């Protein structure tokens, strides 16, 4: 049987419902998985009409009532939005709460093994907090409600796969978080993830923190004190790792396939090269032609894959948002779910 994936609606004032509807309009989506949307059926019905898609909405209150048939979008209806008060592109507590409820339901279904994995559309952090849900984003919500202490963010797009030693912390603090134990921990996570994607003996490149990986101590000592000892221990334990690799060359090599995964020392070190590769801006139209790349939370007891872009309030409701990243997210979640089902 194909894996069942719970796909969250995202913030209904953003592009989440649009990219979900577009992704589920493709027959090939149903050839690889059985998707069910967690959110509000009326929002999805309105979105299908906005996009002019010939799709029906099947509102259900249990997974077993889903049809999983192309042409019909199954929605686990949480009745969480008053569409008469819904304004595209506007931050609101109603939409922040709806996005949160959609995520909570997806997590709950996965924890109860009613679905095999989850895929998340973007939410808005300001709206989330305005609704009284004080989290930095999806990752922290998942960690809280799956009771996970050790986790990490993985960005993936074709050859480029990047995990981070730290993410949402000030840059000054990020330098202090470059520790041997954490580097080993996230390397173990990305090695395991690559194996779930079907890569045997993945080659992992570990970035330095400082320019030129410190040039033997000229520009800092984090490499000598923390990163090199981590690489040595990982190598001794049988991991196929290289490092510290100067950050300004690591990602270029990985993009060309020299590494199966990269360990970045902090948020922007990993995010900037990843988005340069995956985000394609059209100077003539002043818009993005495509936004690819996915965000996978590793270390959880359940599968969570997400698009690596935001709610795009500036284009919400216009029907022009690209579903590319969501399609890739569904691909990754499917691969991971099938791997878990086999094991």
Task: Summarize the topology.
Layout lengths: L3 E5 L7 H8 L3 H6 L1 E6 L1 H11 L4 E5 L11 E6 L15 H19 L5 E4 L4 H6 L7 H8 L6 E6 L2 E5 L6 H6 L3 H17 L7 E4 L14 H15 L4 E5 L1 H9 L5 E4 L2 H12 E4 L4 E5 L2 E5 L5 E4 L16 H19 L1
Parallel strand pairs: 1-2, 1-5, 2-4, 3-4, 5-14, 7-10, 8-9, 8-10
Antiparallel strand pairs: 6-7, 6-13, 11-12, 13-14
Helix pairs in contact: 1-3, 4-6, 8-9, 10-11
Question: Which percent bin holds the helix content?
Answer: 25-40%
Strand order of the largest sheet: 3-4-2-1-5-14-13-6-7-10-8-9
The total beta strand count reads 14
Q: Supply the helix-strand structural class.
A: alpha/beta
List the uncertain runs: none
**Series of H and E elements:** EHHEHEEHEHHEEHHEHEHEHEEEEH
Q: How many helical stretches? A: 12
Task: Kindly report the oligomeric state of this protein.
Answer: single chain
Rg over CA atoms, rounded to whole Å, is 20 Å
End-to-end span in angstroms?
15 Å
- The portion of residues forming beta strands comes to 15-25%
Global outline: globular
Mean pLDDT: 93
Report the biggest beta sheet as strand number plus sense, adding barrel if it closes: 12 strands, mixed
Description:
The structure is a single chain. The chain is of the alpha/beta class. Helix content is 40%, strand content 20%. A twelve-stranded mixed sheet has the order 3-4-2-1-5-14-13-6-7-10-8-9, sandwiched between helices. Helix 1 packs across helix 3 (41-51), helix 4 packs across helix 6 (138-145) and helix 8 packs across helix 9. It is globular.
């Amino acid at each position: 049987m194909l894996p069942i994936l719970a796909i969250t609606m995202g913030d209904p004032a953003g592009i989440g419902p649009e990219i979900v509807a577009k992704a589920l309009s493709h027959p090939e989506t149903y050839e690889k998985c059985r998707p069910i949307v967690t959110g509000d059926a009326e929002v999805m019905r309105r979105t299908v009409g906005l996009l002019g898609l010939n799709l029906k909405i099947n509102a259900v209150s249990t997974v077993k009532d889903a049809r999983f048939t192309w042409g019909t979008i199954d929605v686990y209806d949480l009745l969480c939005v008053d569409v008469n008060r819904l304004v595209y592109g506007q931050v609101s507590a109603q939409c922040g709460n709806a996005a949160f409820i959609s995520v909570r339901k997806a997590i709950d279904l996965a924890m109860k093994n009613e679905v095999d994995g989850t895929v998340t559309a973007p939410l808005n952090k300001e709206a989330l907090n305005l609704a009284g849900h004080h989290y930095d984003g999806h990752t922290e919500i998942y960690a809280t409600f799956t009771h996970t202490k050790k986790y990490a963010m993985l960005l993936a797009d074709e050859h480029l796969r990047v995990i981070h030693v730290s993410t949402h912390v000030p840059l000054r603090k990020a330098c202090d978080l470059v520790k041997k134990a954490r580097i080993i921990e996230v390397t173990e996570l990305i090695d395991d993830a690559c194996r779930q994607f079907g890569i045997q003996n993945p080659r992992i490149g570990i970035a330095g923190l400082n320019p030129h990986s410190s040039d033997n101590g000229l520009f800092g000592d984090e490499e000598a004190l923390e990163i090199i000892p981590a690489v040595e221990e990982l190598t001794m334990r049988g991991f196929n790792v290289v490092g510290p690799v100067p950050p300004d060359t690591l990602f270029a090599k990985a993009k060309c396939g020299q590494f199966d995964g990269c360990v970045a020392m902090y948020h922007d070190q990993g995010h900037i090269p990843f988005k340069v590769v995956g985000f394609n801006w059209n100077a003539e139209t002043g818009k993005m032609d495509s936004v690819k790349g996915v965000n996978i939370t590793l270390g959880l007891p359940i599968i969570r894959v997400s698009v690596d872009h935001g709610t795009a309030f500036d284009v919400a409701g216009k029907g022009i948002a690209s579903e590319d990243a969501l399609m890739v997210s569904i691909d990754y979640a499917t691969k991971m779910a099938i791997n878990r089902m086999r094991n």
